[in-house]
Protein 1
Amino acid sequence: MKYDDYDEDEDEDEDEEDEEAEESEEDSLAGGETMFYMCPNECSYNVTCDKTTRCSSCKRAMNNKINHVGNYVDKEYTIKNGFVKDVTFIVMDDLVIQPMQALPGITILNKFNIKDIGTLKEMVVELGVDEGIKLLKASLQSKMVLTSVFLKKEY
């Protein structure tokens, strides 16, 4: 083959095919584990599992493969068991969330100036889209968010 007949585009296509083959081989070597990618410019700390996702900062494909450190957790395990074990949280009326151990009962009563324990009410609520929107609106207008959204009818 003469140099005149040499097609640079053809060579570039072959290089791209080789790179894609290497990448798909690397992906298959992962043994079914999720691969993670970030922006090649490292302009954000965003991570994706899809290397065609565009970076929110520079809009380049986030195709820079990164290594996961630690153990992978089986999705079925996290769905059934979750990550947090044997910890009870309290959600305050102003949406502050704290572990129950961090706040003794007396402290909570004093914080909200509660004199009569009979006025307290424990509730289990269903949180859907409508309730989420109401919580968002109430959080911008009041410090008594839970009261205004879930007990509003009673007051």
Protein 2
Amino acid sequence: MTPLHILKFGGTSVGSAPSLARVAEIVTRGARTTRQIVVASAASGVTDTLARAASALDATGADPAPWVEQIRQRYERLAAETLPDDARRRYAVDLGVHSEALRRTLTAIATGGTTPARRDAVLATGERLAVPLVAAVLREAGLDAIPTDAASLVHTDDGHGEAAVDLPRTYRTLGRWHRALRPGAVPVVTGFLGRSHARAVTTLGRGGSDYTAGLLAGALQADCLERWTDVDALYTADPRRDPAARRLDALSMDEALPLARAGRLGVHARALDPLQSGPTAVRVRPTSDPSAPGTWVHPASPSRRSPVSVSSRSDSPALYLAGVGAVGTAFLHRLDRLGDAAPVLLGAGTTRGAVWDDGGLRPAEVARQSWAGCDSVAPALDRLRAAARTGRPVVLVDATSSPALAREYLGLLRAGVRIVTASKHANTFEQSYFDALQQASDGGVRYRYETTVGAALPAVETVRDLRASGDTLTSIACCPSGTLTYVMDRVGQGDTFSTAVLDARARGFAEPDVRDDLSGEDVVRKLLILARTAGHRVERDEVDVEPLLPASFAALSAADVPDRLTALDAAWAQRSEAARANGCVLRYVGRFAEGRIRVGLEEVPAPSALGRLAGTDNLFVFQTERYGATSLTISGPGAGADLTAGGVLADVRKVLASSSPARLPLAA
């Protein structure tokens, strides 16, 4: 059979007339020897503009027309530069339909405020305008290109902003759709988009278009996923920011996945996840030079491929998942993709109820659980203790933000339950509780909390390994909050403080009550975790913290906070300008030195590692006695449900890989 290739083109590849011409050349050449499906992103910069529009218009009553016109003109210019008159007139119909839909949604935002569903509808416009344009360009090149909206193919939950994909249903739909295509057709599919159970458009979050391409390749067992981009190959780090970055000509899927999850590969891990047990190779290539070899990621060996199933062996490793929000749902989907290699999922619970089955539950079905009429959560921990008493390796996975559950950890560890947590609470209670948890862990039952700092970045692991090797951590300098890095980066680029904060909230980077991020408490907790893991004894009330909001904001209701933020814009603009005059930028920095933690705003040199941070990136700089003046640096994306879920799964594997006994004879 003719090989099937999935070709994914990013924003720069479809963002100019010369790039679109190269896309047509690439697809036309490939059509001679392969069946092809094209996945397209929005034109470069469009998604950011749409996000700014949603934030700027939020409950203002303002006219959205200037924003709509800005987007319409961008695509109108691209069409004028790439299409003949008759094709341009046909594209104008799509342009008019989606521009009007954008106008209606932005009007609703201006009058009634932003909701996650409205924001997703706005963001979807970029891809929905790009795909018919790309298809028109390909038709002019002689191909039977069919514009296709992924919202009709990719089924998700209602988690707007970073929706979890219903993989079994999506794969069935993609299979039916592909079988119905006419011979020789070249579908052009919107990246980034899905549709919820309520039939509302959803977006797939960071790396969403890559994920769409990965879903297509995984569902259809494609021979190759070609990722066409603006770099010539994959590197061990971003070559634009790290001169030591090393080019990779080829690597295996096993090698690629950890690098991608650590944010070090330039390919989002979610693009590779659907491919990790299938036959699809990945090739990363530069759109600007189609003859360049790029980088090959070779597929997993056949021995690692396994179907999804449920094990019922009473001695096999097993899990209980507490919390089925964004992180918990992403974890379930990752677990589902492991098939027979996955630990048995005994149960899962939320604040609304719990489910349990001694024979094992299907993770994908739990992800779709309505929770109405389910059992109480309380008996689940008793069942977990009972399972551990039999000698079975059992793990509590905590994806909640519940301090009450965190207080249960010590008793669970002493009962033989292993724990993997994404919650910061347990490690930031009083020092004595942290010490007790470490004692229980050292006694044989493993306790992992890598994702409490930096999502999937190996910050905690690095500190733990340094201590285990006999080294002493002497200082930490870090920007461990993706939210605050994003806000400070935007302010440094000229945005107002209020706009930057509300945009971060609209993108899902910040909590619904932005004071939770702007208080600095999240950064304090991360520094406490790192310092305590390194062996230092620090209590919360010993930390010096500078919040980003005046004390008067504490008395406001959450609903009143956004309106009051604008009163701070002038002062923040002055601080940013003063920093710029000194060759610096503002960053919210956490520092640990001489046994003390300080968290607050700093001016840092723009060319420094802290100053170069952008987006939601985290940075950790460690200094130790052994390394002296040479620092150890870890950086990369430190936020996102899927990244965190990947880190949680890695921790689960580590606690289950332990050969230590599952029972601890420790005194209370």
Protein 3
Amino acid sequence: MKKILLLIILLILNSCTAKKTVTEYKERIVKDTVNVFKERLVTKQVIDTLLIEKPCDSLGNLKDFEKEIRTEKAKVTLKSVNGNIQVDVNLDSIVNQRIAEYKSTYKSKVDTKEVEIIKFRYPLWLIITAIVSILLNLVLLRIRLTF
């Protein structure tokens, strides 16, 4: 009987401790963005032929002529000047290339968030015992007051 009573007392004392709950939250976000845009503009090839029949007169002098070829980026002029053939070439760059690099770095580092939540749970037997004890005390007080 003493062993059972000792066991019950030990169980009662052991169950009176409050339960503690701790929640730990860790988050790490790292976003890197690299965008490379390449734009290439190529001027198309232009083929044109200039044919001059009998370029010289009967004395062997070069006849006067003039021919002009135009494109979006170039202008070529072919003409005779003082018995010579003169070619004027006005040429922009044929290939335009544009490379734009966009680099965005987004780093959000949240190392450790510690949220400590302490929840106290009272055991059901403790609540029932407290209610019974209060009721029993009230009843005993009534009986004693009547005497």
